[in-house]
Design brief:
Blueprint lengths: L1 H11 L6 H8 L3 H8 L2 H26 L3 H10 L8 H5 L2 H9 L4 H27 L9 H20 L4 H15 L6
């Protein structure tokens, strides 16, 4: 049920999702929905936080299971290009979409975005530190600054994907950004 509610917000955005939409996709009556989750804003924040927690867990697990730290950062930046149909790129990211729609008017969303982006940058920093120790990244690169730049690159790709830019063009942009962000050590 929460996934259906999340998807409704994701597909329509917060403002365009009505309580009737949420009742329809949840299968709950108004009293039950309010009783379980409170108002629309509280429900939205719940699904946004769940979404962020799930994505962060996947990124952490990927870092643990990755053969090389550099692969985690490359896969992260290339994420919006992973669906050859372009559907994923056009849909964007629930957090990025919500931040663009609501951060200026809803401090809770801005705070959640900052918290989530900081946590992602921490994992990417660890991946880049590992990449340096594995000899895959130049030693003069600052892992923390580069992690934030990789996050910005991915967010830019998400924004471009939402415009309908093709996956091929997005991939070229991602590869170009990665080549500049992740220089290999001099031989």
């Amino acid at each position: 049920m929460l996934l259906a509610i999340r998807d409704e917000f994701w597909d329509k955005g917060y403002a365009a999702t009505s309580m009737d939409d949420l009742l329809r996709v949840s299968g709950l009556g108004k009293g039950s929905l309010y009783g379980a989750f409170g108002d629309k804003r509280s429900l939205f924040l719940r699904v946004l936080r769940d979404y962020d927690a799930a994505n962060l867990l996947m990124l952490r697990e990927r870092l643990v299971s990755a053969t090389r730290g550099i692969d985690v950062v490359r896969e992260f930046v290339l994420g919006p290009t992973g669906d050859p149909t372009g559907t994923v790129a056009r849909r964007g990211c629930l957090l990025a979409n919500s931040n663009a729609e609501l951060a200026a008017s809803t401090p809770d969303v801005a705070a959640e975005a900052r918290r989530s982006y900081d946590a992602i940058a921490t994992v990417l920093t660890a991946a880049l530190e590992r990449a340096q120790s594995e000899g895959d990244l130049a030693p003069d690169i600052d892992p923390s600054e580069t992690a934030r730049a990789a996050l910005v690159a991915q967010l830019g790709l998400i924004a471009l994907g939402r415009t309908g830019m093709g996956v091929g063009a997005l991939t070229v942009i991602a590869q170009s950004a990665l080549a500049r962000l992740l220089p290999t050590p001099a031989q």
